[in-house]
Write a structure and sequence with these properties.
Blueprint: E1 9-15, H1 17-20, E2 22-23, E3 26-27, H2 31-41, E4 47-53, H3 59-64, H4 66-72, E5 80-84, H5 87-91, H6 97-113, E6 117-121, H7 135-153, E7 156-158, H8 187-201
Parallel strand pairs: 1-4, 1-5, 5-6, 6-7
Antiparallel strand pairs: 2-3
């Protein structure tokens, strides 16, 4: 469904608790979407903002609920959609890195089919090896596939792990950027995340 170029342009976020910035009972008030939107709004290009990012959401669930998403917040031409998942598909959904990657490809394909632009973020380190022994192997596989194919699967690709704060497999131990659960980020981490994403999406706004 392509809604045409006359609709209001929006910056949308599709993902999980990393995007809606919640960690258990601690809630960071959509810090990442709000901070990134503030930067985009300063360009005066007419974007509004909506986040369809739900705690615990997996990529495979986003795909199965796509018709619901399109009913609640129809995505279309002029929209730019930030896609950040993979971690829940692997860490909670039991998928391997290739399967998680394939779901990201499908989500981006669904977005682009509407005429909107898909911005794909890769998967940052998290303290999941205790419950998911293959976590780092599968995360690296997923990220490698994204990097290899990013020119064909999305409109913009953000390599978060190229930043020193997220480059090490044990980066989650750095309390400067990570929440105490060592999975989610804190306000400093979300602000850094926004500063990484912003210059990447500027050319497609």
């Amino acid at each position: 469904m392509n809604l045409g170029a006359n609709k209001i342009k929006r910056l949308l976020f599709i993902g999980n608790s990393l995007s809606n910035c919640s960690a258990g009972i601690v809630y960071f008030s959509y810090r990442f979407p709000n901070t990134l939107y503030s930067s985009v709004a300063s360009l005066n290009k007419g974007y509004s903002f909506f986040a369809y990012a739900i705690s615990g959401k997996q990529g495979q669930q986003i795909i199965s609920e796509w018709s619901i998403i399109m009913t609640q917040q129809p995505i279309g031409a002029g929209d730019v959609v930030i896609v950040w998942e993979g971690i829940n598909d692997m860490g909670a959904g039991g998928l391997n890195g290739t399967q998680a990657y394939n779901n990201l490809v499908t989500i981006c394909s669904n977005i682009r089919a509407t005429g909107a632009k898909a911005v794909l973020l890769n998967v940052i380190p998290a303290n999941l090896t205790g419950t998911y022994p293959n976590w780092n192997t599968d995360r690296n596989t997923c990220n490698s596939l994204i990097a290899t194919n990013q020119t064909t699967i999305c409109d913009a690709y953000v390599d978060l792990t190229a930043n020193a704060a997220f480059s090490s497999a044990t980066a989650f131990n750095d309390a400067t950027y990570y929440h105490t659960d060592k999975i989610h980020l804190n306000n400093v981490g979300y602000d850094l995340l926004s500063s990484i994403v912003y210059p990447i999406i500027q050319p497609i706004l």
